Recover the amino acids of this structure.
């Protein structure tokens, strides 16, 4: 330690050590106080409270208020645990610079007088100030990065994040302004003719500060980007909420007919799907084996008898040829529907198919014919299809089930 | 062109290609040279590559607007308009249910089970979900929360808004098609000068 007056120094040492020990002794209760914002006085004995107050660890901000941690202690904890909600950034450079100037002056005076032990002490203090100045930026930059990298996750709402981001940007501007206060010409002048000072104030400090400067600019860039992202997110949320509200208020709302404008907005130019299909090339001898394999894999109907006859007899009874023709057309459409089910492999809704193909059968007749066709299938083929009725009771009191739609699905063979 | 076969097939089938739905494909499509090649290839099919304003999603549009093309686009547009409110309500519901601080964006993950659990115990969320599920767009006939949610997510997957990385695992990733939806909404709003704000009022800023 510096050769201060020995008695004062040892006094400082013992008081400091004792008070630091107080922090450790009551660590849990104090930390709880940090989290709650005030101290639970019942957790301490009367004597302990007195000691903590005397040590300037606790204080009572107001007569009515409970005891709380002193701001400096809170700050210390916030910095130790990187609690960005409470961490403080100190951007005050002017004060530190003033101290550095004074110390340099005191150091030079002492040297001039030949009082080397004092000079040594002043140099020691000066070194501390220089480190403090650099450490202050380091701490601030660390805090800024921490906040950035957590996407300001320590506050929950987007609005809060935007506010926090803006606060961080203001801090950053103050830090940059602080850096601007440092005039290296002045520092070079201050250290003129002294190696110690030149090393401390010029090479070391300048190096550190220029790296801080570039860090700060990088943080600034990222903060601005992040703020833009937050704003974009906010705009999205608002657009969604407000548009939904608008559409709810205007259920019959219909926008203009964009697809038929002469200048079609590209957003609405979504072409119909084309599904490339391919078949075996019969003209390629090399593929015959594959073809034969496929044919063999086809499910073989046990009887060649076609199911048509069951309902065909119905048609035959019809004298009117026109009705018979319509009946035949309906049957053909229904068969096509079944073929589609087989082609597609999944399940297919009868009514959707009807609408899709723009067939003009009455939906009830359509469903009836699909059921009829299904019933008319031979048992083995019937097993190939799954039939799913979409039905609902006729009314609350009538349990009669009305079929609304039918889905036919191809079952795995 | 050969190496883009599967990508072309997806595009032709009407898929939206974004960074989430097909990372490689998206990278290829972002390349101007490839875009030209694909457009050249698609020309006889009367198709061309289209992207949204910020180029986050690609799909196929018509090269020439024939009568058939216009007809298809009209019916497509009618469906889009019909689907706006249910999709917006779904977006809001997910945001509120999962307690997120911002709207869903491409790349966000939704766990179906978490969504169900949070809806289950909340009467008002439950009611909103019920109303949403029975909307024509989702068309659920079920009264069961679980199957309603499953149906809603399945429909959104079919429409390309969600991606399910593992068919047996119930979690979904939001695709870039949601950007297209928001672009459409923004377009309609601007075009029709609807009183729909997306910037916070001056008061909120201060």
């Amino acid at each position: 330690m510096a050769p201060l007056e020995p008695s004062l120094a040892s006094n400082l040492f013992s008081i400091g050590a004792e008070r630091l020990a107080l922090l450790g002794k009551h660590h849990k209760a104090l930390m709880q106080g940090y989290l709650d914002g005030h101290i639970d006085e019942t957790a301490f004995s009367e004597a302990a409270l007195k000691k903590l107050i005397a040590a300037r660890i606790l204080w009572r901000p107001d007569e009515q208020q409970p005891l709380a941690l002193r701001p400096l202690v809170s700050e210390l904890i916030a910095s130790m645990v990187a609690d960005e909600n409470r961490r403080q950034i100190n951007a005050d450079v002017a004060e530190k610079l003033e101290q550095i100037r004074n110390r340099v002056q005191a150091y030079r005076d002492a040297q001039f007088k030949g009082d080397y032990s004092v000079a040594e002490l002043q140099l020691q203090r000066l070194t501390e100030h220089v480190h403090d100045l650099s450490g202050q930026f380091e701490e601030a930059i660390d805090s800024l990065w921490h906040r950035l990298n957590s996407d300001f996750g320590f506050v929950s709402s987007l609005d809060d994040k935007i506010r926090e981001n803006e606060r961080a940007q203001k801090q950053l501007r103050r830090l940059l302004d602080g850096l601007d206060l440092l005039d290296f010409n002045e520092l070079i002048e201050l250290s003129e003719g002294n190696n110690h000072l030149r090393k401390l104030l010029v090479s070391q400090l300048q190096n550190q500060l220029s790296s801080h400067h570039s860090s700060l600019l990088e943080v600034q860039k990222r903060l601005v980007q992040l703020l833009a992202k937050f704003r974009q997110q906010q705009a999205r949320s608002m657009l969604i909420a407000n548009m939904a509200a608008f559409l709810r208020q205007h259920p019959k709302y219909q926008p203009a007919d964009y697809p038929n404008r002469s200048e079609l907005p590209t957003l609405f130019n979504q072409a119909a799907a084309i599904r490339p299909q391919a078949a075996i090339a019969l003209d390629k001898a090399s593929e015959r084996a594959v073809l034969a394999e496929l044919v063999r894999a086809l499910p073989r109907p046990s009887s060649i008898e076609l199911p048509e006859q069951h309902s065909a007899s119905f048609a035959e009874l019809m004298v009117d040829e026109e009705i018979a023709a319509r009946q035949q057309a309906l049957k053909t459409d229904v068969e096509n529907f079944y073929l589609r089910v087989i082609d597609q492999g999944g399940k297919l809704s009868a009514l959707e198919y009807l609408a899709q193909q723009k067939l003009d059968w009455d939906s009830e007749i359509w469903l009836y014919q699909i059921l009829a066709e299904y019933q008319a299938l031979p048992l083995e083929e019937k097993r190939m299809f799954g039939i799913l009725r979409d039905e609902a009771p006729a009314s609350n009191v009538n349990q009669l089930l009305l079929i609304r739609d039918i889905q036919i699905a191809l079952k795995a063979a | 062109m050969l190496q883009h076969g599967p990508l072309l097939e997806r595009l032709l089938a009407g898929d939206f290609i974004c960074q989430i739905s097909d990372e490689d494909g998206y990278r290829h499509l972002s390349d101007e040279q490839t875009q030209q090649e694909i457009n050249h290839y698609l020309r006889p099919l009367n198709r061309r590559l289209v992207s949204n304003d910020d180029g986050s999603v690609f799909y196929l549009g018509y090269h020439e607007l024939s009568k058939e093309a216009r007809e298809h686009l009209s019916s497509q547009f009618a469906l889009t308009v019909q689907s706006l409110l249910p999709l917006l309500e779904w977006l809001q519901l997910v945001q509120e249910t999962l307690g997120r601080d911002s709207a869903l964006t491409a790349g966000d993950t939704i766990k179906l089970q978490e969504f169900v659990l949070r809806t289950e115990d909340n009467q008002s969320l439950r009611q909103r979900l019920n109303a949403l599920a029975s909307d024509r767009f989702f068309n659920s006939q079920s009264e069961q929360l679980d199957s309603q949610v499953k149906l809603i997510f399945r429909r959104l997957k079919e429409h390309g808004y969600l991606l399910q990385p593992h068919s047996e695992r119930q979690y979904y990733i939001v695709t870039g098609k949601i950007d297209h939806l928001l672009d459409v909404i923004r377009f309609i709003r601007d075009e029709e000068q609807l009183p729909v704000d997306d910037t916070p009022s001056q008061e909120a800023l201060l």
